[in-house]
Structures are given as C-alpha cells and as structure tokens.
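job 3f2a | input accepted
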Amino acid sequence: MTQLDTILVFCINKVLHKVWAKDWSKARGVHRTIKSICKRLAKSTQACDHDSIPMSFVPQLCTSDTASHEKNLGQLPPAYMYSGIFKDIILEIDDDNAKSMNTLVKFRREQNISETEISEFKREYHDRSPVYWYTKQMFLYGMLNRALRTLDMEWMRKLGFFIRNLHIHLGELHQDQLVDFQTVLTVYRGQGMSKADFQNLLDSKGGLFSFNNFLSTSKTPFTYFVSLF
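job 3f2a | predicted structure (229 res):
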C-alpha cells in the first residue's frame, strides 16, 4: 500500500460507506458526485506535489573546517551537487527573455495547456512580478515544481529565464525588507516526508539541509499532519 496515496469512494449511499471508510487511513472521502471527487482529487494532487520536494542532507562532518576538501566533496549527496551546479549555470546565462518565452509557450501548447492561460502569461508577464506568476494557480507553478523535483533538464532549460527572474526578484525583496526586520523572522511550513528522510534529517543534526525548490511559507504557525510512509 506504500504506492497508494489516496482512496476516494464513489457511491450513492454515502452514510453506509462512511462507516467502513473511516477505518482506512488513506480513504480521504466518500462522494456522491463526480464534481466533488474531482475537487478532492485536485487537493490530493496538490498535497502530493507539496510533499514531493527532493531533500538532501549534508552531515556535519562535510561542513567541518577540519575535514579535507576532497573528502567533503566525496560525501556530498549527488542531488545536492547537481542542483548547485545547475543554479550557478542558470544564473549566469544572459539570454533573450522574449525568445525564451516564445520557446516555453510553444512547448506548453504542445502539452495541451489552456490557451487562455498561455495567452495571459505571454501578454501580461512583464506587467507582473515573478512572485505573482509563481503563486498564481496556473500551469507555471506545477511545471516549475515538477522540473525542480525530478531534475528534468529539458523542462528546467525551458523555464530557465523564469527561474532566473524569480531568484533575482526574491533577492531584491530580501534586501528591501531587511531594514524592516531587526530580529530573526520566523516562518512556518508543513512538510511530509518518508521515514527514511526523517531519519536522515535526525542523523544530519548540525549539518546542512538542502532542497532544490522555491518554498511557500507562512508567518502563522499551523498544525500539519506529517505522513510517514
């Protein structure tokens, strides 16, 4: 059952099936309409994307000044090194945003993305901030997260101009807001992870925790159910 994330029950007698469904932790709802199932499925898909962020754990030994440089590099997780190399490359590229956008638009049309979304993105991109486009519920958010999560080089290359613009914009926002925070700013994020990742996190105490993604956070603490599988 580890490969199964969510069970959605479709039936006429909702009350009857609720009785047994409550005994299954992965049964997330009993529905009488296709519309309600689709809405619940969309939420489950979003939650899976949220918790599928690849994480790298760098032991404290690798960050110690006493360890040799060669030994440190040999113990670094491959995903950590790949994402670092890609970031350095993508930030140094000076390409034509208009040309890159046309390439991205053509690619997404081939993927049968809504023409309305594509037209809005192309027409209004320079009138909005990169953060606006990243947080907007449209094709860009899912595509970017999938590319970074799977290290899909083709998708990341097509999104390179946006990744670069978003990275630069976040840096500018950080500098602008730095004077407003004289103390440490604490933000919160719920994150599901596997038992293996959780153990790696515990074993890496004092080391580094890396993720190749842009994270959404909140200044308000909230309760989040962490699913260990």
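job 3f2a | Residues 69-177 form one domain.
job 3f2a | closed
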